[in-house]
């Protein structure tokens, strides 16, 4: 493991230690006292349990609106050039179209930006960090992380960043509404992190055609999409083992659960050395655990709105849904030339559910038709989540 990766793991551990009182413990994470949270506009149907909310950051509308303004504000970066929205666009279900994100200083991120929709139900955050258990912990990474630099706030510029925000009369009102006390005293990174977490926690999506179908509208899906749905949930294809449940991922937790596990999967994308190696720039949870068997293991993302979030996989290396289906049908990816050449189908750490399957050309399209029914067009057009600085 190289020096940069050691520093990344150390930073993650520091984040967990620092915010242990902000929801990192099991008692706080699985708090079931959510009656007060029901007053918040969650956009979550009654039959689905509410997300887990840290006791020291209860959701409320003023904090949500403060977070929305901060999410879209480029002043929340070291050089004033990048906001959270720079890599998470509403019209793409809060993902982006780049293979790998680019930080405020031009540094290329090792991974693809995930959708932020329904992340309140995540068991862990980012593609491959079992130590990041809450949004409050995760948000520190893009704000302050150095490997890679994303928003690039550091000791040299953080006072200026806070001063710029505190000087804005709009923020003075927003901070005062969200936190009791004088605005000058409440403009700090603790409140900023909590506000961003509240906004992202409130970005929820349950308005797709598949949701309507599951709620009794038998005519909303086309014949092709229904056939694709049947295949998706079949034992032959086994998609649902990693992408099941109401959030279409097996990495789901909510306020009804006492325990939740986060499985990570090696999907056979790479096998550079014939012994399972992934490209050094992004190798999965092995970067945190140092366990050889964790090479290439990443969290299964939610498939909600997946038709909007191309490119795919942890490094954005698959361009289309069709190519994704073909890769899984083959039981992994065989790269025949270049620096990443190797047969992922023979990766010794490949997940048992990625075993390959026979499928016709028509059924590939049927699966894609089903995946397209997971798109929530209300979400991507909802003014509640839109840029408030453009209103």
Describe, in plain words, how this protein is organized in 3D:
- This protein has 391 residues and is an all-alpha fold.
- It has 2 domains: 3-205, Cytochrome Bc1 Complex, Chain D, domain 2 (Orthogonal Bundle); 209-377, Orthogonal Bundle (Cytochrome Bc1 Complex, Chain D, domain 2), CATH 1.10.760.10.
- Helix content is 31%, strand content 2%.
- It is built from 14 helices and 4 strands.
- The strands form 2 sheets. The protein has a two-stranded antiparallel ribbon with strand order 1-2. A two-stranded antiparallel ribbon has the order 3-4.
- A hairpin with a 6-residue loop joins strand 3 (334-335) and strand 4.
- The radius of gyration is 21 Å and the shape is globular.
- The relative contact order is 0.15.
**What fraction of residues sit in β-strands?**
under 5%
Q: pLDDT below 50 for ≥5 consecutive residues: which ranges?
A: 1-38
Strand arrangement across the biggest beta sheet: 1-2
Q: What is the CATH superfamily of the largest domain?
A: Cytochrome c-like domain
Total beta strand runs: 4
Q: Given the structure, what is the number of helices?
A: 14
Which CATH first-tier class of the largest domain would you pick? Mainly Alpha
Largest sheet: 2 strands, antiparallel
Helix-and-strand structural type: mainly alpha
How far apart, in Å, are the first and last alpha carbons? 47 Å
* Element pattern in H and E: HHHHHHHHHHEHEHEEHH
Shape: globular
CATH 2nd-level architecture of the largest domain: Orthogonal Bundle
Helix content: 25-40%
Round the mean pLDDT to the nearest integer and report it.
90
Radius of gyration: 21 Å
């Amino acid at each position: 493991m190289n020096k940069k990766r050691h520093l990344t793991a150390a930073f993650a551990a520091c984040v967990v230690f620092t915010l242990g009182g902000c929801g990192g413990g099991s008692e706080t994470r699985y708090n079931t006292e959510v009656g007060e949270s029901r007053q918040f506009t969650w956009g979550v149907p009654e039959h689905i349990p509410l997300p887990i909310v840290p006791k020291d950051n209860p959701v409320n509308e003023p904090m949500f609106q403060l977070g929305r303004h901060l999410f879209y504000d480029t002043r929340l970066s070291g050089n004033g050039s990048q906001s959270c929205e720079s890599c998470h666009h509403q019209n793409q279900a809060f993902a982006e179209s780049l293979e790998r994100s680019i930080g405020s200083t031009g540094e290329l991120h090792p991974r693809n930006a995930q959708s932020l929709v329904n992340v309140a139900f995540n068991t862990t955050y980012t593609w491959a960090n079992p130590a990041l258990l809450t949004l409050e912990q995760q948000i520190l990474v893009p704000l302050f992380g150095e490997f890679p630099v994303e928003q690039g706030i550091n000791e040299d510029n953080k006072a200026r960043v806070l001063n710029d925000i505190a000087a804005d009369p709009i923020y003075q009102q927003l901070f005062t509404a969200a936190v009791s006390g004088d605005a000058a005293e409440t403009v700090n990174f603790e409140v900023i992190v909590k506000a961003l977490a509240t906004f992202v926690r409130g970005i929820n999506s349950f308005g797709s055609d598949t949701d309507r179908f599951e709620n009794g509208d038998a005519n909303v899906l086309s014949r092709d999409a229904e056939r694709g749905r049947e295949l998706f949930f079949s034992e032959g294809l086994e998609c649902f083992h990693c992408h099941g449940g109401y959030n279409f991922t097996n990495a789901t937790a909510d306020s009804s659960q006492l325990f939740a596990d986060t499985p990570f999967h090696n999907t056979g994308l790479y096998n550079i050395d014939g012994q399972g190696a992934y490209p050094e720039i992004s190798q999965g949870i092995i970067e945190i655990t140092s366990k050889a068997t964790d090479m290439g293991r990443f969290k299964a993302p939610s498939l909600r709105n997946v038709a909007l979030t191309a490119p795919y996989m942890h490094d954005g290396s698959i361009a289309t849904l069709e190519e994704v289906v073909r890769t899984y049908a083959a039981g992994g990816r065989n790269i025949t030339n270049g620096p990443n050449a190797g047969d992922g189908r023979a990766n010794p750490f490949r997940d048992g559910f990625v075993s390959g399957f026979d499928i016709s050309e028509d059924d590939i399209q049927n699966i894609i038709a089903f995946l397209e029914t997971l798109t929530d067009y209300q979400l991507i057009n909802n003014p509640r989540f839109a840029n408030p600085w453009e209103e």
